[in-house]
C-alpha cells in the first residue's frame, strides 16, 4: 500500500479519505479486520499518532468499531455503509457538477456521454 | 517529558542558546529545525549533560540528568562514536556490558532491518552504515527517549529511506523522539511537533497536523515564512 | 556499590586492552635494548683488554691495572639500560596525556560513548588512572626480570680474571636510578609512588580543566600545576626562608611531604570529579 499525501491538508483526514475509498470500493469488506495502527503507520510512512487520530475519528463516525484489546474492524452496519456510499456519491456529483459548470450543456446531452463513460469503465 | 526552561549558553561572547524553552513529550516525534548555526546539536548535548549550560534547567520527567538516566535516554549523534577497530558485534557486546536496558533481541532485529554485518569493522563501513551503527546503539536500548542529531545528513538516499522507516516502525514504539534536522522534507509526514530555531532562539513551536488543519500550511510553508520573513 | 566496582573492572580491562599494544612495544624495546647492552658492553670491554694486551704485549695483570675490573654495575650504567628506562618513563607520561585526548581527537569521538555510560564518570577517571599505574609497574617488573636475565649473560662474557665479583643486588643498590624505580627501601619507594600518583592526578586534573574550559583552561591548568608544585615544594624551601637549617628532621620532612602530597592528590580528585560531572564538553 503506497499513498502519497499532500503536505498542506491534515494527514489524518487524508488517511480517512483513503480508507473510505477502500470501504466504498469493497476492498475493505464489512467486518474485516483493520491493520494495527503501527502497521498502517509503517505502510504509509507516517506518524502512528496520526493513524491513531484517523482511527478515533472513524470510530466516532461508526465506520469502524473496536472492542477493548482487540484489533479494529470495519463496520457491518448497512445503514452506516449506505450513508458512506451516498456521501461519496454526493461529493463526486458535486465535484462533477461544479467542474462542468462553465459549459452550456443540457441533461439530455449529458446522459449518453455518461452512459458511454460508464460502459468503458466496465 | 523532556523539558527545557530558559536554557542559555555562550561560547566566549557569542550566545549559542539564548533562552531556549520547549518540551518534547513521550510518544511524540519532536523535530528541532534550524537552517544554520550550532544551536541544535548544542541543545542535544546539553540535554545529555555532555556540555555545561550557563543558565536554565533541563529536566527529564522532572529530574535532572544523571548518569543513571543514560539507561532511560539514548542519544544518537551524527559522528562516529565507537572505536574504529571494533566490529559491529563487538559494539553490541560493549553496549550489553554496560547498559541494563540493552535489548539483545531488538538489537538483532535492527541488525537485520539495516542489513548490517556483525563481523564488519567499523572503520570499513560507509558513512551510511556508520550512521546505522549509531542508530543500532541508541534504538536497541529500552529507553523512554531517543535523541537523534541530524540522522539524514551526508547519507545516500536509500539509507535515508531506511532510516525514515525507523520512525514509523515498532523500533521507535511509544518512545519520545527528539530529532534535529535542517532537511525537513523527508520526514514532514512523520513528525508531531516542530520547534523552529534560529540564532539560539525559538521562533515558533507548533504541532504539524494542527498547522495543516487550522491554517492549511505545510511545515515547509511555515519555515519559509519564518526564515524568509 | 557492587555494580560500580564491576563497571570499574570492566572499564579497566577495556583500557588495558587498548594500552596493550603500546605497552608490549615498550616492554619489547626494553628487553631487546637491554639484551644488546648485556652483550655489547662486556664484549667491548673484553675487546679493549685483548687489543691492549696484543698491541702492548701486556699481561692480564697490566690490563687489569689499566682498565680495572668489570662489574655488572658497568653494564647497568650505560645507555643500553638507562635509555629504555627513559623511553619507558617518557612513553608512559605521553600515554597519560594521550589516554584522554584520543577520546576526543581520534577518527571517532569515543568520548560520547564513554561519557554516556550509565556509570559514575569517575569510574572512567579511575580506570584510566589504574591502567597508567599497571603500565608503569609492568615496565618496572620487566626491568627487574631483565636484570636477572642479564647478570648471568654479563658474567659469562667477562672472564673471571677481569670480573669484580659484584653481586646482582650489590650492583643494583649501587645505581641511584634503581633506588627510585625498585622497592629497595620501602619508605623511599612509598614516597616515590605517592609522588608519582599525585603527579598523575594533577596531570589528569589539568587535562580535564583544559577539556572543560578550552584555551582559557590551558592557563588555568598551568596555574593549577604551579600551585600544586608550590604546595609540595614549600617545606623544602622553608629552612632557607627561615634561615634555620635544622627546622625538620629528614623523617619529619618525609611525613610532611607525604601529607602535603596526599592533600594535593585529594584536592585534584575533587576538582576532577566536579569537572567531569558538570563542566566537561564532548
TrEMBL record, chain A:
<dbReference type="InterPro" id="IPR000524">
    <property type="entry name" value="Tscrpt_reg_HTH_GntR"/>
</dbReference>
<dbReference type="InterPro" id="IPR036390">
    <property type="entry name" value="WH_DNA-bd_sf"/>
</dbReference>
<dbReference type="InterPro" id="IPR036388">
    <property type="entry name" value="WH-like_DNA-bd_sf"/>
</dbReference>
<feature type="domain" description="HTH gntR-type">
    <location>
        <begin position="9"/>
        <end position="77"/>
    </location>
</feature>
<dbReference type="Pfam" id="PF00392">
    <property type="entry name" value="GntR"/>
</dbReference>
<dbReference type="GO" id="GO:0003700">
    <property type="term" value="F:DNA-binding transcription factor activity"/>
</dbReference>
<keyword id="KW-0805">Transcription regulation</keyword>
<keyword id="KW-0804">Transcription</keyword>
<keyword id="KW-0238">DNA-binding</keyword>
<protein>
    <submittedName>
        <fullName>GntR family transcriptional regulator</fullName>
    </submittedName>
</protein>
<dbReference type="GO" id="GO:0003677">
    <property type="term" value="F:DNA binding"/>
</dbReference>
UniProtKB/TrEMBL annotation, chain B:
<dbReference type="Pfam" id="PF00005">
    <property type="entry name" value="ABC_tran"/>
</dbReference>
<keyword id="KW-0547">Nucleotide-binding</keyword>
<dbReference type="GO" id="GO:0016887">
    <property type="term" value="F:ATP hydrolysis activity"/>
</dbReference>
<dbReference type="GO" id="GO:0005524">
    <property type="term" value="F:ATP binding"/>
</dbReference>
<protein>
    <submittedName>
        <fullName>Multidrug ABC transporter ATP-binding protein</fullName>
    </submittedName>
</protein>
<keyword id="KW-0067">ATP-binding</keyword>
<dbReference type="InterPro" id="IPR003439">
    <property type="entry name" value="ABC_transporter-like_ATP-bd"/>
</dbReference>
<feature type="domain" description="ABC transporter">
    <location>
        <begin position="2"/>
        <end position="224"/>
    </location>
</feature>
<dbReference type="InterPro" id="IPR003593">
    <property type="entry name" value="AAA+_ATPase"/>
</dbReference>
<dbReference type="InterPro" id="IPR017871">
    <property type="entry name" value="ABC_transporter-like_CS"/>
</dbReference>
<keyword id="KW-0813">Transport</keyword>
<dbReference type="InterPro" id="IPR051782">
    <property type="entry name" value="ABC_Transporter_VariousFunc"/>
</dbReference>
<dbReference type="InterPro" id="IPR027417">
    <property type="entry name" value="P-loop_NTPase"/>
</dbReference>
Automatic annotation (TrEMBL), chain C:
<feature type="transmembrane region" description="Helical">
    <location>
        <begin position="218"/>
        <end position="238"/>
    </location>
</feature>
<protein>
    <submittedName>
        <fullName>Uncharacterized protein</fullName>
    </submittedName>
</protein>
<feature type="transmembrane region" description="Helical">
    <location>
        <begin position="188"/>
        <end position="209"/>
    </location>
</feature>
<feature type="transmembrane region" description="Helical">
    <location>
        <begin position="122"/>
        <end position="142"/>
    </location>
</feature>
<keyword id="KW-1133">Transmembrane helix</keyword>
<keyword id="KW-0472">Membrane</keyword>
<feature type="transmembrane region" description="Helical">
    <location>
        <begin position="21"/>
        <end position="40"/>
    </location>
</feature>
<feature type="transmembrane region" description="Helical">
    <location>
        <begin position="79"/>
        <end position="101"/>
    </location>
</feature>
<feature type="transmembrane region" description="Helical">
    <location>
        <begin position="253"/>
        <end position="276"/>
    </location>
</feature>
<keyword id="KW-0812">Transmembrane</keyword>
